């Protein structure tokens, strides 16, 4: 078992990673001194796989366990699902000391986290991410949210968990497509902050795709470490935290236009990273070789790299203008400088930039 | 103009109080260095009275102003109204730098504050309370919330405003019934923390009921000062902040059973304080004279002091058991020790206590 700490003063917490951690849940939670009552929030895909194991481990450790099982998928990350959580929790007598345990991928973690942030103005919260994407990215750093029909993650809160428990063996049951979507975020960390790690991914991709535990453990903890460093510097995204959004500005536009769930978040981020890198190249911030290197690794991960052609540059730009980084009407976007470094840039006339780049990148 | 500071480290902010402050809004906001775009959230009672004045003052100071006008009343403090706010804000291009200005009473402030806490994970927020209740209580301290069909203020966040601007002259247009409801919270501060202030209210009640500005200004700032002290000690209600809930545990039960809006929050708190004081007397924490002194001042404020008789003690206790102070299944309630002091008490068998007290207090 490996562990690290996310340093956020009185909101600091530990990330633990290992194989078969679910059976040791009692011991892992013990230092948190939680109240007796816990609510496991999960979905109808994860529940049949790990629900009873988690339930058993919690009950054996003396917890009183309730659970909420939501329908799976990004299209359910909305106010309606949130209300299902609130209502169930009120009906089963959850109080301010009740702990929410998120068991699932990014959608479950984001929604359960936002429920924890807002139920009775905030209750304790533990993340047990079961997808690669959630393990390397969304479960760490305290971003919680639901989608609004007019934009992804528009309603949310910064709310830190008390612990993140990453059981790598849950990835055994993760569908290939979802595993690959998680790799998009792994690649992202290399591009924005660590060329050496990017090269390591290139060298070890076959091993990662076989889900070899040691390689997976290394990659996950490297991603968490980069993220923890950035979050410790800028918890509420006033500055450097925005770098974690590399590929997400265009990616969110793709998700929104295609319809949530039609394309996976990681897949949209893969496309978004390619577009961001092309914009970088246009601006002379990276070489075309860097773009090709990125496209190549994403392709080998089984991820899409071409932009869905059914939407116009104007539609993409309009969707991007609803991004949370837009400030005083100006589009702001993270661009890579070569591989391993990145910064945030502002665009006065995005339609011009994107019309050109998208013309090259369309299917 | 008087002012004071709520001391909350990097979340500290000022409360300013005076007559005719609305016309000076530009100067009052200037030190906050807000972005250009502001959204005024108000209701259909306050908007015709002060909407154009606020709009004008903001535009003169160079702000771009949008507004959301909600239907008035506690029964609209729900997820539906919140979605109206979110949708309007997304449609008119509000970003992370947009400031929400709450112009109205406690319902508007609570909802606008929760929208500010959750729109794009948190945006700047200013309170302009226009009811006595909001000026002495709900606009200060950062409690924001909406109601859930299963309980009042169940969904919310602790989220501090950047400034609270109390224009006492807005009380000129406040209906008598609503003004009196605000007095309930004024009396509360005397009971829980300041016997001298309680005596001052007794001595100056006629002046207060005439809305004499000097007396009003003194009462409002005394209440804000007591609240600011308590909030500075315990922002997220882990301990002493619960004292501000005196009268609210039973009061919330009355509101919930009668239907939100049928009885005003302050009226329900008045009844709740009488019940709390009677429980205190039963337990020997105060004398019957203290109870009578409290009932007397509430009566003179034009407030109800008897419990609606159409509900049984069992119904009241069931409603109270959904209170946010309930912990591990035990009812917790603030009780007064004499007048001017209070503490929180836990009840193993609330039905027994309340059956007795309610039998004496029923209509």
Q: How would you concisely characterize the structure shown here?
A:
Chain A is α/β, with parallel strands linked by helices and about 375 residues long. Chain A has helices spanning about 25-30, 45-60, 80-90, 105-120, 130-140, 175-195, 195-210, 215-235, 250-260, 265-280, 290-300, 315-320, 350-360; strands at about 1-5, 15-20, 35-45, 65-70, 100-105, 125-130, 145-150, 150-160, 165, 330-335, 340-345.
Question: What descriptive keywords fit this protein?
Answer:
homodimer; 363 residues; alpha/beta; Rossmann fold; Dehydroquinate synthase-like, alpha domain; 2 domains; 7-stranded mixed beta sheet; two-stranded antiparallel ribbon; 13 helices; 47% helix; 18% strand; globular
CATH superfamily of the largest domain in chain A: Dehydroquinate synthase-like - alpha domain
Spans of at least 5 consecutive residues with low confidence of chain A: none
The quaternary state of the protein chains shown equals homodimer
CATH topology of the largest domain in chain A: Dehydroquinate synthase-like, alpha domain
CATH architecture level-2 label of the largest domain in chain A: Up-down Bundle
Mean pLDDT of chain A: 95
Measured by residues with Cβ under 8 Å of the partner chain's Cβ, the largest interface is: A-B, 41 and 41 residues
Give me the Rg of chain A, rounded.
20 Å
The beta-strand count of chain A equals: 11
The secondary-structure element order of chain A is: EEHEHEHEHEHEEEHHHHHHHEEH
Q: Structural class of chain A, please?
A: alpha/beta
Q: What is the percent of helical residues of chain A? A: 40-55%
Tally the helices of chain A: 13
User: In CATH, what is the class of the largest domain in chain A?
Assistant: Mainly Alpha
Termini separation of chain A: 44 Å
């Amino acid at each position: 078992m490996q562990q690290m700490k996310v340093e956020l003063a009185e909101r600091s917490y530990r990330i633990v990673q290992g194989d078969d951690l679910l059976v040791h849940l009692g011991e892992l939670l013990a230092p948190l001194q939680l109240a007796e009552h816990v609510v496991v929030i999960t979905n109808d895909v994860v529940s049949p796989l790990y629900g009873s194991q988690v339930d058993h481990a919690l009950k054996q450790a003396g917890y009183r366990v309730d659970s909420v099982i939501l329908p799976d998928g990004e299209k359910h990350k909305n106010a309606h699902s949130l209300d299902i959580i609130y209502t169930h929790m009120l009906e089963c007598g959850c109080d301010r000391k009740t702990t929410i345990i998120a068991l699932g991928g990014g959608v479950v973690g984001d929604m359960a986290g936002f429920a924890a942030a807002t139920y009775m103005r905030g209750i304790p919260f533990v993340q047990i991410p079961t997808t690669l994407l959630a393990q390397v990215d969304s479960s760490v750093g305290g971003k919680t949210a639901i989608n609004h029909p007019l934009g992804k993650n528009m309603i949310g809160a910064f709310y830190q968990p008390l612990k993140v428990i990453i059981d790598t063996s849950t990835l055994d049951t993760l569908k290939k497509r979802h595993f690959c979507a998680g790799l998009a975020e792994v690649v992202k960390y290399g591009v924005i902050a660590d060329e050496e790690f990017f090269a390591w991914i290139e060298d070890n991709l076959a091993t990662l795709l076989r889900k070899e535990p040691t390689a997976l453990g290394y990659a996950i903890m490297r991603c968490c470490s980069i993220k923890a460093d950035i979050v410790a510097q800028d918890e509420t995204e006033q500055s450097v935290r925005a770098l974690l959004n590399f590929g997400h500005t265009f990616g969110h536009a793709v998700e929104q236009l295609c319809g949530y769930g039609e394309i996976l978040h990681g897949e949209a981020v893969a496309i978004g990273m390619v577009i961001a890198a092309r914009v970088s190249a246009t601006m002379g911030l990276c070489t075309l070789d860097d773009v090709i290197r990125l496209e190549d690794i994403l392709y080998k991960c089984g991820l899409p790299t071409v932009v869905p052609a059914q939407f116009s540059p104007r539609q993409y730009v309009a969707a991007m203008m609803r991004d949370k980084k837009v400030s005083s009407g100006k589009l702001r976007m993270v661009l890579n400088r070569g591989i391993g470094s990145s910064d945030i840039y502002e665009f006065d006339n995005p339609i011009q930039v994107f019309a050109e780049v998208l013309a090259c990148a369309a299917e």
